[in-house]
Amino acid sequence: MLKPIAKFMDWVFPNHWNPMENLGALSFYLFWVITATGLYLFVFFETSIDGAWASVEMISNEQYYIGSIMRGVHRFASVAMAVTVTLHLIKELLLKRYTGARWFSWVSGVPLLWLLFASDLGGYWLVWDEKAQYIAMTSAALFDAIPLVIVEPMALGFLSQEVVSDRFFTLLIFLHVGIPLALLLGMFFHLQRINHSRSMPRRRLAVSILAALVVISLLMPATSMPQANLNKVLGPIEMDWFYMNPLPFIDMWGPGTVWVVLVSFSTLLLLLPLTARTASDVARVDPDFCNGCGWCYKDCPFDAIYMKPHDSKKNHMQAVVKEDWCVGCGICSGACPTVTPFKRFNEANSGINLVDRVNFDVLSAARGKLRERTSAGKILVIGCDYGTDVRQFEDEQVVAETLECIGQLPPSFMDYLCRREDVEAVLMTGCRSDDCYHRLGVELQQERLVRLREPHLKYSDVRDKIGKLWIGKGGEKEIRLHLAGIKRQLEEEGV
Q: Residues 72, 218: contact at Cβ < 8 Å?
């Protein structure tokens, strides 16, 4: 389902500019844009029944362009954040990134939806125009449906113009500041089990998004409806389907039904991780081979590894796996420098490895297949479980193996196979470069290949043999074309 969308977005946007691969980071960035512009608007906002609407109009119409731009950016950044958060949820859902140890990030994200909705809906109240009047009266009906007899009906506060006081706007300001602070705290907890989290998009993308918001604000300035008047019957209201979407259903179905729908939907999202099978394959540390380097600890995408004093080696550290947090990606085993087939190929031991998918087993399988091939110009294709299945490309010249994640592959294996098993070309493929299923597998592997990260390739001639194609699922055509090109090049070189 996501493949056609991903291809279209890649065609529209240059490398690393694809917003679909930066949804979480964009949401954080837009939050700070909203905060900065909101602080500017707050300086000129008057917290009173008579001054609220007038002060907003003054900002929009009497501050030349700056006030209008600030209000517009604040308004459209809120819409953009609603879009990015929604798309982020849908994407994580479709990719099933709520299973196993990822449950914490998923569950902690659900309350953020409520806080985001409440924060932005409160912003409409502060304008105090006819749209705010409609929102206030409809929201009052919604809250009055909650069976709390100790609370006076909220709707009584909007019976007439004389009932609303300046204290009401003081409360609104307090909530409109407090709820975003709660949202920020929630976003902090949302990332607690994520290592190397990216809370900001790439600089060029961030600047482009901000520039686009400014342009939209100039072309379509944010405007207010006439000032609210509780003594008058409301006419037609301009709807905002990004944040006001539940309100018309309150009129149609009644507040009780809307509560049932909203609470049921949220409960379904919270319980979704329970429906998925937890991965049984986790990483295990072998203290006899762990040298305490800490590279697995640094590279773990989910903060599932910590270091402690070694059990038997004095003045040494030892890695420890938090099994409840481990997703079984194997990136830690790819980072372990003790995985060295040159020294002990027949010993399936390393400092850290997956229980059911040991790196040496994969290496042994690849070596066995390569030795069965009699044709010249042997090609090795390495893929991951969440990209295109590379086993379909095996032939008399091509050997293919898959890993849980491309980050599971130790660079020493490439050194060994190219030097000892006469592999003439290697094609690495897997998830899309900025959208690795296990977050960091592709990025870390690329850094290892170019010697920017330990452990890295030892031989430069091996690095020249390695090609990379981060295409994700559905990349059969691209991989076949790439392999055909490799074969043609080897033939031209007389290999």
A: yes
Distance CA 94, CA 245 (A): 23
pLDDT, tens only, 409-434: 999 999 999 988 889 999 999 998 87
Which domain, by its residues, includes 97? 2-275
Using the predicted structure, report yes or no on whether residue 155 has a pLDDT greater than 60: no
Single pTM value for the model: 0.86
| 290 and 223 together in one domain | no
- The model's pLDDT over 58-77, given as tens digits with 9 standing for 90+, comes to 999 988 789 999 999 999 99
- ∠ at Cα 244 (242, 250), nearest 5°? 140
How is 240-284 classified by DSSP, letter by letter?
-TTTSTTHHHHHHH-HHHHHHHHHHHHHHHHHGGGGSPPP---EE
Q: What sections of 13-154 are H helices per DSSP?
A: 23-44, 51-61, 66-94, 103-127, 130-144
Plot region of 378 (φ>0 → left; ψ -120 to 50 → alpha; else → beta):
beta
DSSP code for 135: H
253 and 287 in one domain?
no
pLDDT tens per residue, range 288-317: 889 899 999 999 999 999 999 998 888 889
Cα separation, 382 vs 368, whole angstroms: 15
d(CA 312, CA 285): 14
Using an 8 Å Cβ cutoff, are 455 and 412 in contact? yes
CATH number at residue 250: 1.20.810.10
Q: How many domains does the chain have?
A: 2
Whole-angstrom distance, CA of residue 214 vs CA of residue 289: 56
pLDDT at 82: 92
Are 298 and 215 found together in one domain? no
The residue behind tokens 């980072």 is: 335
Helical H segments across 191-254, by residue range: 203-219, 247-253
pLDDT digit string (tens) for 220-270? Answer: 999 899 998 888 878 788 777 777 778 888 888 888 899 999 999 999 999
